[in-house]
Automatic annotation (TrEMBL):
Protein name: Serine-enriched protein
SMART domains in alphabetical order: BTB
Family matches, as InterPro entries: BACK, BTB/POZ_dom, BTB_POZ_domain_cont_9, SKP1/BTB/POZ_sf, TLDc_dom
Organism: Rhizophagus irregularis (strain DAOM 197198w)
GO cellular component: cytoplasm
Length: 480
């Protein structure tokens, strides 16, 4: 049986690093006032690192009195000290390091080809310093967006930005965001923010890239506008101008008319003032701006909207598709949890989407009804009375389920098959799709298609305690 004595080996090599007798390499790290020389041993560096094995045998080095002199001005002394600890002993402590130092270590470990170290530091940042990542998303993205191996951290930042877009745009580091990153961000469909706010911060970002622009826009001349136009030229087509209200177009976009390409501006003008579908612009309002929910992520909202339009699940919407605005009208923690409260808020609404998160579960249920859940308002047609309630007719109703708020792998949809019994309205229920297919009664959710009024794709018969309900009114604001 082999005997292993790593502990003493690590201690001895640590002493060799702290008291470097017989060193033959001096590595100069840092720049300006933050510099330091490290005395190291070429045999250890070459044995532990393919990067140094190549670098110390190349023209990158210079020799003085038989001493190898190597310079790394792009690394900080703190960062390189951790790297040497890893090289010599396989040990280092991140618990007392700042987020900035750990991020520096991540970038350095990628440059120096330490794959094991890179994976560890990336995982540590995500698992132990997530709050810091969220607070410094722009800084993190600037550092890692070119690193092919850093997809986990990139995705972590993007997921946070999609849900907290305003917080990201308002951060101190946003004005220094790399233009390539900004370009990619503006292409994302799932940003949860009003488009006019994106426009406002894009203008601020563009001004920050031009130090010569004074803060008082009234003092700008033609050269100033040209400078801003040149800076923002590639970004303007990515702004969903059709998602900005006519008032905001007039108040906040028109003052920058000269920086908008003429063909784009003419399209917007015809869209807002003549209701003409744009000929050039192909980007519809962002899905993330349509729904703000603690229950589902924007990707699922996009899927539900495609279901409403009877499109393929992952259909990519265009400007010619119906545009929706989903307005929160009932939230149990805000409006009180009861059938009566739900009905008071939702009765008479013409189109409704209900979302339900099951208590202590990843299970999410929902349903869409273009005729609402009860009370047709002015019209009393389209129903018949049965079992002390009213059945309402709709051929476009559906119910659905998900296993997680951002996972579309296990999504299921069941469309109505008996359109005469799409909705059952009775005072004992907040809502009832098909008399029991999906029904809220008190604090309980019933999922049981025993009446066969909907497809049986959910394939479940269950009773759940409801933890959270979000209901949205759907308004089609292009096609009347």
């Amino acid at each position: 049986m082999a005997s292993i004595f790593h502990l003493n080996l690590s201690k001895d090599l640590s002493l060799l690093l702290d008291y470097p007798d017989d060193y033959n390499v001096i590595i100069q790290v840092g720049e300006n006032q933050n510099t330091k020389e490290f005395r190291t041993h070429s045999v250890i560096l070459r044995a532990r690192s393919s990067y140094f094995k190549s670098a110390l045998s190349s023209n990158w080095i210079r020799k003085k009195d038989n001493m190898i002199i190597f310079s790394k001005p792009d690394l900080t002394p703190t960062c390189f000290d951790m790297i040497l600890r890893y090289i010599y002993t396989g040990e280092f402590d991140l618990t007392k390091q700042s987020g900035e130092n750990i991020l520096d270590l991540l970038v350095a470990s990628d440059e120096l080809l330490f794959e094991e170290l890179f994976r560890h530091v990336q995982d540590y940042l995500i698992e132990e310093r997530l709050d810091w990542i969220h607070e410094n998303s722009a800084l993190v993205l600037n550092a890692v967006f070119r690193l092919d191996n850093c997809k986990k951290l990139q995705d972590c930042c993007l997921k946070f930005i999609c849900k907290n877009t305003l917080l990201f745009l308002s951060s101190k580091s946003f004005p220094s965001l790399n233009k390539e990153i900004l370009f990619d961000l503006l292409k994302i469909d799932d940003l949860q923010i009003e488009e006019i706010i994106i426009w406002d911060h894009l203008i601020k970002w563009g001004i920050n890239q031009n130090p010569g622009l004074v803060s008082d826009k009234a003092k700008w001349n033609n050269e100033n506008y040209e400078a801003l136009k040149k800076t923002l030229n590639q970004f303007i087509p990515l702004i969903r101008l059709v998602g900005i209200s006519r008032v905001d177009i007039f108040d906040k976009v028109l003052p920058y008319k000269t920086i908008i390409p003429k063909h784009i501006y003419e399209d917007i003008e015809e869209f807002h003032y003549k209701s003409v579908i744009p000929k050039i612009i192909i980007l519809p309002p962002r899905t993330g701006s349509l729904i703000k929910s603690n229950i589902i992520e924007p990707i699922l909202a996009k899927i539900i909207i495609n279901w409403i339009d009877k499109k393929d699940t992952m259909y990519t919407r265009t400007i010619n598709d119906p545009l929706y605005k989903l307005e929160l009208i009932y939230l149990n923690i805000r409006d009180g949890f009861s059938n009566k409260s739900f009905r008071n808020k939702c009765n008479g609404r013409m189109a409704n989407l209900v979302l339900i998160k099951v208590k202590q579960s990843n299970k999410i249920f929902g349903g869409y009804s273009p005729i609402g859940f009860s009370s047709l308002g002015e019209s009393e047609e389209g129903y018949f009375v049965e079992n002390n309630g009213r059945f309402y007719n709709s051929s476009n109703n559906f119910i659905f389920s998900f296993e997680h708020n951002s996972d579309n792998k296990y999504m299921k949809i069941s469309r109505v098959v008996n359109s005469n019994k799409a909705i059952f309205d009775n005072r004992h229920c907040g809502f009832d799709f098909g008399m029991g297919s999906l029904c809220m009664s008190g604090y309980t959710l019933y999922v049981n298609n025993y009446n066969e009024n909907y497809e049986n794709n959910l394939n479940i018969r269950a009773i759940y305690t409801i933890a959270e309900i979000e209901t949205f009114n759907v308004e089609d604001y292009i096609k009347k």
